[in-house]
């Protein structure tokens, strides 16, 4: 197991359509272990394979639900949202690939996701509220979509300005 460096906004891998996983081989299992370790290390609640430079349709999520004995921690292979609720709500989102900034993003309140688990078994899960938000955010990454694409142009300009200023300040520290 190892952490892998998280790629940042501007890396083309974040903007490409990730490929479906066709075989659950040792490479994919190692990828999933590394995604969990990297997510924990970065204190994130979700991570998609393209964020560590691997353009495959694999995500891990850990929305840290206190009422869920399993902790809600799962890896999904080839996840697909098959149903969105009509109801939508706004909530704050950040992204490990755009560190230091966040913004309110409108998402479906509830979704149904079909995917495979690490043994290759098909699974369907229904999520609402924060876990549904995390899943939508991570599955977007597999299509090259970032949360800043889902906010108004004005909000996006402000987020990007804040982000660039932060990066410059960090660079200035040497
Ligand atoms: Ni993200």
Structural overview:
The protein is an alpha+beta fold. It contains three helices and seven strands; from the N terminus they run αβββββββαα. The protein has helices at 26-42, 130-142, 153-172, and strands spanning 46-48, 58-61, 74-84, 88-94, 102-108, 110-116, 122-128. The protein has a five-stranded antiparallel beta sheet. Strands 4-5 form a two-stranded antiparallel ribbon. A hairpin with a 7-residue loop joins β4 and β5 (102-108). The longest helix is centred in the C-terminal third of the chain and has 20 residues, at 153-172. The chain is globular. The model has no long low-confidence stretch (mean pLDDT 93). Residues 95-97, 137, 141 line the site of nickel (II) ion.
Ligand inventory reads: nickel (II) ion
What is the typical, i.e. mean, pLDDT?
93
Low-confidence stretches: none
**Secondary structure tally: strands:** 7
Please tell me how large the radius of gyration is.
16 Å
SSE class:
alpha+beta
* Helix-strand sequence: HEEEEEEEHH
Strand content: 25-35%
Shape: globular
Strand order of the largest sheet: 1-2-3-6-7
**What is the distance, rounded to the nearest whole angstrom, between the alpha carbons of the first and last residues?**
30 Å
Number of helices: 3
- Largest sheet, described in full? 5 strands, antiparallel
Q: What oligomeric assembly is this protein in?
A: single chain
Summarize the amount of helix as a percent range.
25-40%
